[in-house]
Write a structure and sequence with these properties.
Layout (H helix, E strand, L loop, with lengths): L1 E3 L7 H14 L25 H7 L4 H17 L10 E11 L4 E7 L4 E3 L1 E3 L8 H13 L5 E2 L7 E7 L8 E11 L15 E5 H7 L3 H14 L2
Parallel strand pairs: 2-8
Antiparallel strand pairs: 1-9, 2-3, 2-5, 3-4, 3-9, 6-8, 7-8
Length: 228
Protein backbone atom coordinates (compact mmCIF):
# COMPACT_ATOMS: atom_id res chain seq x y z
CA UNK A 1 0.00 0.00 0.00
CA UNK A 2 1.29 3.46 -0.87
CA UNK A 3 0.51 6.04 1.82
CA UNK A 4 0.39 9.71 0.86
CA UNK A 5 1.22 12.52 3.26
CA UNK A 6 -0.30 16.01 3.51
CA UNK A 7 0.91 18.98 1.47
CA UNK A 8 -0.51 22.50 1.48
CA UNK A 9 -0.80 24.80 -1.50
CA UNK A 10 -3.15 26.97 -3.51
CA UNK A 11 -5.24 24.56 -5.59
CA UNK A 12 -8.15 26.86 -6.34
CA UNK A 13 -7.48 27.43 -10.05
CA UNK A 14 -6.94 23.78 -10.88
CA UNK A 15 -9.97 22.70 -8.83
CA UNK A 16 -12.24 25.19 -10.60
CA UNK A 17 -10.90 24.08 -13.99
CA UNK A 18 -11.43 20.44 -13.10
CA UNK A 19 -14.99 20.97 -11.92
CA UNK A 20 -15.77 22.99 -15.05
CA UNK A 21 -14.40 20.28 -17.32
CA UNK A 22 -16.27 17.57 -15.43
CA UNK A 23 -19.47 19.52 -15.92
CA UNK A 24 -18.78 19.72 -19.64
CA UNK A 25 -18.14 15.99 -19.71
CA UNK A 26 -21.59 15.38 -18.33
CA UNK A 27 -22.92 17.25 -21.35
CA UNK A 28 -21.23 16.68 -24.67
CA UNK A 29 -17.47 16.84 -24.19
CA UNK A 30 -15.30 13.79 -24.88
CA UNK A 31 -12.14 13.63 -22.74
CA UNK A 32 -8.99 12.47 -24.53
CA UNK A 33 -5.64 12.38 -22.74
CA UNK A 34 -2.70 12.26 -25.12
CA UNK A 35 -0.78 9.03 -24.83
CA UNK A 36 -2.49 8.09 -21.58
CA UNK A 37 -4.95 5.44 -22.74
CA UNK A 38 -7.64 7.30 -20.78
CA UNK A 39 -9.75 8.41 -23.71
CA UNK A 40 -13.39 8.32 -22.70
CA UNK A 41 -16.21 7.41 -25.04
CA UNK A 42 -18.67 10.09 -25.98
CA UNK A 43 -21.45 10.84 -23.54
CA UNK A 44 -24.88 11.58 -24.92
CA UNK A 45 -25.55 15.34 -24.77
CA UNK A 46 -27.74 16.14 -21.80
CA UNK A 47 -26.47 19.61 -20.94
CA UNK A 48 -27.95 21.20 -17.83
CA UNK A 49 -29.92 18.11 -16.89
CA UNK A 50 -31.45 18.17 -13.44
CA UNK A 51 -30.54 15.54 -10.90
CA UNK A 52 -34.01 14.06 -11.27
CA UNK A 53 -33.47 13.65 -15.03
CA UNK A 54 -30.07 12.04 -14.50
CA UNK A 55 -31.59 9.57 -12.05
CA UNK A 56 -34.50 8.80 -14.37
CA UNK A 57 -32.04 7.58 -17.01
CA UNK A 58 -29.90 5.64 -14.53
CA UNK A 59 -30.41 1.86 -14.34
CA UNK A 60 -29.82 0.36 -10.88
CA UNK A 61 -28.11 -2.96 -10.23
CA UNK A 62 -28.81 -5.27 -7.30
CA UNK A 63 -31.38 -5.29 -4.52
CA UNK A 64 -29.78 -2.58 -2.37
CA UNK A 65 -29.67 -0.06 -5.21
CA UNK A 66 -33.17 -1.00 -6.35
CA UNK A 67 -34.34 -0.12 -2.83
CA UNK A 68 -32.30 3.10 -2.51
CA UNK A 69 -32.90 4.69 -5.91
CA UNK A 70 -36.64 5.42 -5.49
CA UNK A 71 -35.94 7.33 -2.26
CA UNK A 72 -33.26 9.38 -3.98
CA UNK A 73 -35.56 10.10 -6.92
CA UNK A 74 -38.31 11.34 -4.59
CA UNK A 75 -35.78 13.58 -2.84
CA UNK A 76 -34.54 14.99 -6.16
CA UNK A 77 -38.07 15.62 -7.41
CA UNK A 78 -39.61 17.14 -4.27
CA UNK A 79 -36.91 19.01 -2.33
CA UNK A 80 -36.27 22.65 -3.18
CA UNK A 81 -32.57 21.90 -2.80
CA UNK A 82 -31.76 18.17 -2.39
CA UNK A 83 -28.12 19.10 -1.59
CA UNK A 84 -29.15 21.10 1.50
CA UNK A 85 -27.14 19.76 4.43
CA UNK A 86 -29.81 20.16 7.12
CA UNK A 87 -32.17 17.69 5.41
CA UNK A 88 -32.24 14.31 7.21
CA UNK A 89 -31.54 12.75 3.80
CA UNK A 90 -29.57 14.92 1.36
CA UNK A 91 -27.51 14.38 -1.77
CA UNK A 92 -23.73 14.09 -1.89
CA UNK A 93 -21.38 13.24 -4.74
CA UNK A 94 -18.24 11.14 -4.56
CA UNK A 95 -15.50 9.72 -6.75
CA UNK A 96 -13.59 6.47 -6.63
CA UNK A 97 -10.24 7.53 -8.09
CA UNK A 98 -8.44 4.96 -10.21
CA UNK A 99 -5.07 4.72 -11.95
CA UNK A 100 -6.07 2.44 -14.83
CA UNK A 101 -2.50 1.56 -15.83
CA UNK A 102 -1.91 -0.17 -12.48
CA UNK A 103 -5.53 -0.96 -11.52
CA UNK A 104 -5.07 0.80 -8.19
CA UNK A 105 -7.57 3.00 -6.36
CA UNK A 106 -7.04 5.92 -3.99
CA UNK A 107 -8.81 5.72 -0.64
CA UNK A 108 -9.05 8.37 2.08
CA UNK A 109 -9.33 7.84 5.82
CA UNK A 110 -12.61 9.34 7.08
CA UNK A 111 -12.26 10.14 10.76
CA UNK A 112 -15.99 10.50 11.41
CA UNK A 113 -16.85 7.12 9.92
CA UNK A 114 -13.57 5.55 11.08
CA UNK A 115 -13.22 3.95 7.67
CA UNK A 116 -11.21 3.94 4.44
CA UNK A 117 -13.58 5.27 1.78
CA UNK A 118 -13.67 7.07 -1.57
CA UNK A 119 -13.37 10.86 -1.69
CA UNK A 120 -16.28 13.24 -2.10
CA UNK A 121 -18.81 15.26 -0.19
CA UNK A 122 -21.36 18.05 -0.24
CA UNK A 123 -22.22 20.56 -2.89
CA UNK A 124 -21.33 24.19 -2.21
CA UNK A 125 -24.12 26.80 -2.33
CA UNK A 126 -25.32 27.18 -5.90
CA UNK A 127 -23.85 23.87 -7.10
CA UNK A 128 -26.16 21.20 -8.51
CA UNK A 129 -24.15 19.17 -11.05
CA UNK A 130 -23.12 15.94 -9.30
CA UNK A 131 -20.17 15.06 -11.54
CA UNK A 132 -18.71 18.57 -11.17
CA UNK A 133 -19.18 18.42 -7.39
CA UNK A 134 -17.49 15.02 -7.24
CA UNK A 135 -14.59 16.34 -9.33
CA UNK A 136 -14.13 19.42 -7.15
CA UNK A 137 -14.26 17.44 -3.93
CA UNK A 138 -11.88 14.82 -5.30
CA UNK A 139 -9.32 17.43 -6.32
CA UNK A 140 -9.59 19.29 -3.02
CA UNK A 141 -9.06 16.12 -1.01
CA UNK A 142 -6.21 14.66 -3.09
CA UNK A 143 -4.46 17.55 -4.84
CA UNK A 144 -4.80 15.73 -8.17
CA UNK A 145 -5.35 18.25 -10.96
CA UNK A 146 -5.81 15.89 -13.91
CA UNK A 147 -8.83 13.88 -12.80
CA UNK A 148 -11.22 12.87 -15.58
CA UNK A 149 -14.51 10.96 -15.40
CA UNK A 150 -13.79 7.36 -16.40
CA UNK A 151 -14.72 5.60 -18.58
CA UNK A 152 -17.27 8.39 -19.09
CA UNK A 153 -19.20 10.93 -17.05
CA UNK A 154 -22.11 8.63 -16.27
CA UNK A 155 -23.30 7.78 -12.76
CA UNK A 156 -21.69 4.54 -11.61
CA UNK A 157 -23.51 3.82 -8.33
CA UNK A 158 -26.27 5.34 -6.18
CA UNK A 159 -26.13 4.54 -2.47
CA UNK A 160 -27.89 5.75 0.67
CA UNK A 161 -25.42 5.68 3.55
CA UNK A 162 -25.93 6.38 7.25
CA UNK A 163 -23.73 9.07 8.81
CA UNK A 164 -23.17 9.14 12.59
CA UNK A 165 -23.71 12.28 14.62
CA UNK A 166 -20.72 14.59 14.86
CA UNK A 167 -19.40 18.10 14.24
CA UNK A 168 -22.59 19.50 15.72
CA UNK A 169 -24.80 17.55 13.32
CA UNK A 170 -27.31 14.85 14.26
CA UNK A 171 -27.15 11.42 12.65
CA UNK A 172 -28.45 11.62 9.08
CA UNK A 173 -28.26 9.96 5.66
CA UNK A 174 -26.41 10.74 2.46
CA UNK A 175 -27.87 9.93 -0.95
CA UNK A 176 -24.47 9.46 -2.56
CA UNK A 177 -24.07 9.77 -6.34
CA UNK A 178 -20.84 7.98 -7.28
CA UNK A 179 -18.47 8.33 -10.23
CA UNK A 180 -15.15 6.85 -11.30
CA UNK A 181 -12.34 9.32 -12.01
CA UNK A 182 -8.96 8.52 -13.49
CA UNK A 183 -5.56 10.12 -13.00
CA UNK A 184 -2.34 9.78 -14.98
CA UNK A 185 -0.25 11.16 -12.11
CA UNK A 186 -0.83 9.01 -9.01
CA UNK A 187 2.41 10.20 -7.38
CA UNK A 188 1.04 13.75 -7.26
CA UNK A 189 -1.65 12.84 -4.73
CA UNK A 190 -1.33 14.76 -1.45
CA UNK A 191 -3.56 14.46 1.61
CA UNK A 192 -5.65 17.52 2.40
CA UNK A 193 -4.58 17.35 6.05
CA UNK A 194 -2.89 14.99 8.48
CA UNK A 195 -6.15 13.52 9.78
CA UNK A 196 -7.20 12.43 6.28
CA UNK A 197 -4.34 10.29 4.93
CA UNK A 198 -4.56 8.73 1.47
CA UNK A 199 -3.58 5.27 0.26
CA UNK A 200 -3.06 3.85 -3.20
CA UNK A 201 -4.13 0.22 -3.01
CA UNK A 202 -5.05 -2.65 -5.29
CA UNK A 203 -8.72 -3.52 -5.69
CA UNK A 204 -8.17 -6.61 -3.57
CA UNK A 205 -6.56 -4.59 -0.78
CA UNK A 206 -9.30 -1.96 -1.01
CA UNK A 207 -11.97 -4.61 -0.48
CA UNK A 208 -10.06 -5.86 2.56
CA UNK A 209 -9.44 -2.54 4.31
CA UNK A 210 -12.82 -0.90 3.82
CA UNK A 211 -15.53 -1.69 6.33
CA UNK A 212 -18.37 -0.65 4.02
CA UNK A 213 -20.21 -3.27 1.92
CA UNK A 214 -21.52 -0.54 -0.39
CA UNK A 215 -17.96 0.48 -1.29
CA UNK A 216 -17.13 -3.15 -2.02
CA UNK A 217 -19.98 -3.09 -4.52
CA UNK A 218 -18.57 0.09 -6.10
CA UNK A 219 -15.16 -1.60 -6.30
CA UNK A 220 -16.72 -4.65 -7.98
CA UNK A 221 -18.25 -2.42 -10.66
CA UNK A 222 -14.90 -0.77 -11.29
CA UNK A 223 -13.22 -4.18 -11.47
CA UNK A 224 -15.63 -5.23 -14.22
CA UNK A 225 -14.80 -2.13 -16.27
CA UNK A 226 -11.05 -2.57 -15.85
CA UNK A 227 -11.32 -6.16 -17.02
CA UNK A 228 -12.83 -5.20 -20.38
Amino acid sequence: MDSVGPERGDRTASIRRLAFEAGLAAGRTVFRSKGSGLASPAVEPHAADSLAELLDRYRPEGEAELADLPRVRVLAETADDPWQRDLPLHVTASALIVHPATARVLLRWHQRQQAWLQVGGHGDPGESDPVAIAAREASEETGLADLEPWPDAGIQHVVIVSVPAGKGEPAHEHADIRYFMATRTPDHARAEHADAPLRWVSLTAAREITSEPNLRETLARLDSLLAR
